[in-house]
Amino acid sequence: MMETKPAHQRVDVLGVNISAVNIPTAVEVIGNFIADDARTYVTVTSVHGVVESQHDSELMDIHNRSGMSTPDGMPLVWCCKKAGVETCERTYGPDLMLALCEESARKGWTNYLYGAGPGVADELGKRLEADYPGFKVVGTHCPPFRPLTDEEDAAIIAEINNLNPDIVWVGLSTPKQEWWMDAHVNKINARVMIGVGAAFDFHSGNTKQAPTWMQKSGLEWLFRLATEPKRLWKRYLLGHPQFVWGMIKQRPKIAD
């Protein structure tokens, strides 16, 4: 992994250094990673990622080693503004993905889609190529829900390296996608890997997104909880109070 010079300010939110960026800035930073052949990764970080990091110091380090950790949810944007970075805006994985699809089509960047359920990455790739003329998907892979064998992992690495994409999109959810990117950043030759979680399901049409007003007001968690209660109740009903309590005890500040 190439050492990347900070191109943006970070804010310490309970030990996780969140990049105080917006969509245009994030696209510019990723474009620089590609131009510089940085071999790095981008985490799209929500309250869930910050809470998980409180119980997993290595996950916190993975976020802090990233080339960029964007504020995926409004609470993290509010934290960045509280620390004094007024230009910070929500840099939501699905929105960042579409902005980069447009930029990829314009600049000729190549893309590989890794993650989601059977057939989702293929479907997503076709949709994005149709919606963004010039956008190029060079390969896709849907991994099984079990850990890969060493042989399977080596085969995926070889396939991606043979295709030599500029961007590897990773849709495995947090913290699985962060662990995967960190474990593969020195093995995969892509210029940048970007973990965007549910964006694969949203943009393929398999999962409905919250209305825009809920996203902007910080209530998307309520929409997602209502649509997937069995999977997400612990994340929101237990994790969010932990985050609020943590912020009461430790104010966000500009990262060292």
Topology:
Layout: E1 10-13, E2 16-19, H1 23-35, E3 40-45, H2 47-54, H3 57-65, E4 68-71, H4 74-82, H5 93-107, E5 110-115, H6 120-131, E6 136-141, H7 150-163, E7 167-171, H8 176-184, E8 192-195, H9 199-204, H10 212-216, H11 220-227, H12 229-249, E9 253-254
Parallel strand pairs: 3-4, 3-8, 5-6, 5-7, 7-8
Antiparallel strand pairs: 1-2, 1-9
Helix pairs in contact: 1-5, 2-3, 2-12, 11-12
Task: Summarize the structure in words.
- The protein is of the alpha/beta class.
- It has one domain: 3-Layer(aba) Sandwich (Rossmann fold).
- The chain has 12 helices and 9 strands.
- Strands 4-3-8-7-5-6 form a 6-stranded parallel β-sheet, sandwiched between helices.
- Strand 1 and strand 2 form a beta hairpin.
- The longest helix has 21 residues.
- The radius of gyration is 17 Å and the shape is globular.
- The model has no long low-confidence stretch (mean pLDDT 89).
